[in-house]
Inverse folding.
């Protein structure tokens, strides 16, 4: 058989099979040969896939297994294509638009017979213009099956040193390539997270958009977000989590509505919006909960040491807010922070350019009321801290015990606190602050 079929004919068959399965015109630079043992196959070396970009997909080698019975009649038909060491370099604009590296061709949906496409030991490089960080997905082993315009993909890969596997189903690739909506289903499972999405998706003006239902859970939200290059603002917490929501995807933005969130034993409902602005992550949202315990998280500043007998002399860590902006509103029936308990609290947390602010409106505090705000500014050469609080008609023994561990005053009273401090790293001496006490 190898003597009866010319190399040019073999190249032509391999080229048509690749174009049919990928929608991309191949360029074959290496040798091509037809092997009959151990199974009939075309073996090709040094292939590049011309998608019209300067840095198109490249393939180390290709093997096209052939259908056996047509060979007996001198006809070559490809059953499966295996792309070995496939390299994709996907580039996105800062607005999330696709610049190159991921071709989508509607013509493949019109083919009568599209061979199964397999990827062995592939890799994907994802780059966003203006960002130094490059996401690398390695060890890609996948199988792509076409059924008319429908595409089903299963495979495994490594991202962030974590092994993951998943499935993807696109109902109508032809509609997707024309900028129309197609149904989409995704299942992803990695060591720190399990994720499922079912809904619709469009690819219009080189941008990916979609809306559907999302569910995710795992043992560590910190590690799950790290897979996508997102860091959290606290060195503690962000462990076991569960999320169910309606999600809307826009270029460089995700909007979560009808959100039900469980994190570190806390449960809240509401909505969140996450987006990228250059190298910064921005999280905005509103959440409501019956009980919230924030004791696990390291607050950016803390007045007292663990022993609660002197001022905390540890350096204030603000590096997490260098690339993270926050605008979060939280309302809860009971708020716990260490030994402090606050009822019916409405809290606003904000962080931008290393300026962290927190405020609480009229809340219940040990039989009395509480309101106040705090601001930590680490953007200046000399960081500053400012705290203003007003506690009215509260139980002194329980209230001061929770705030500073001081339990030698009994009765009820009001307390106004104003603390201002500046320093490079920490408060080295007890700050002087005006305080007004009124006891009945």
């Amino acid at each position: 058989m190898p003597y009866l079929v010319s190399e040019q004919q073999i190249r032509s068959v391999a080229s048509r099979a690749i174009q049919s399965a990928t929608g991309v015109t191949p360029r074959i630079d290496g040798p091509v040969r037809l092997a009959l043992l151990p199974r009939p196959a075309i073996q090709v070396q040094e292939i590049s896939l011309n998608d019209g970009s300067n840095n198109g997909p490249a393939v180390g080698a290709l093997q096209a297994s052939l259908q056996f019975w047509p060979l007996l009649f001198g006809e070559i038909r490809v059953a499966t294509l295996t792309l070995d060491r496939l390299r994709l370099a996907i580039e996105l604009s800062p607005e999330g638009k696709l610049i190159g590296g991921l071709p989508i061709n509607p013509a493949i949906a019109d083919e009568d017979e599209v061979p199964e496409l397999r990827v062995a030991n592939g890799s994907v490089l994802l780059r966003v213009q203006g960002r130094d960080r490059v996401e690398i997905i390695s060890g890609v082993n996948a199988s792509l099956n076409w059924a008319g315009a429908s595409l089903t993909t299963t495979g495994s890969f490594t991202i962030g040193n974590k092994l993951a596997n998943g499935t993807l189903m696109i109902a109508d690739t032809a509609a997707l390539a024309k900028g129309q909506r197609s149904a989409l289903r995704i299942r992803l499972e990695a060591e720190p997270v399990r994720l499922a999405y079912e809904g619709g998706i469009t690819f219009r003006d080189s941008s990916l958009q979609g809306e559907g239902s999302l569910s995710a859970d795992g043992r560590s939200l910190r590690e799950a977000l790290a897979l996508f290059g997102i860091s959290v603002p606290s060195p503690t917490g962000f462990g076991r989590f569960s999320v169910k929501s309606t999600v809307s995807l826009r270029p460089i933005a995700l909007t979560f509505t009808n959100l039900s969130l469980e994190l570190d034993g806390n449960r809240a409902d509401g909505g969140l919006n996450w987006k990228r602005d250059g190298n910064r992550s921005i999280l905005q949202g509103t959440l409501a909960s019956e009980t919230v315990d924030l004791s696990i998280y390291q607050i950016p500043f803390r007045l007292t040491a663990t022993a609660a007998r002197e001022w905390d002399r540890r350096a204030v860590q603000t590096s997490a807010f260098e690339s993270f902006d926050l605008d979060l509103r939280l309302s809860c029936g009971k708020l716990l922070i260490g030994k402090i308990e606050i009822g019916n609290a409405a809290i606003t947390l904000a962080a931008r350019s290393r300026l962290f602010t927190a405020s609480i409106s009229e809340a219940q505090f040990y039989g009395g009321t509480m309101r106040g705000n705090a601001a930590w500014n680490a953007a200046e050469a000399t960081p500053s801290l400012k705290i203003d609080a007003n506690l009215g008609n509260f139980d002194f023994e329980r209230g001061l015990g929770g705030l500073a561990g001081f339990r030698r005053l009994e009765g009820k009273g009001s307390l106004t606190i104003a603390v201002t401090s500046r320093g490079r790293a920490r408060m080295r001496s007890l700050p002087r602050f005006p305080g007004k006490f009124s006891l009945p």
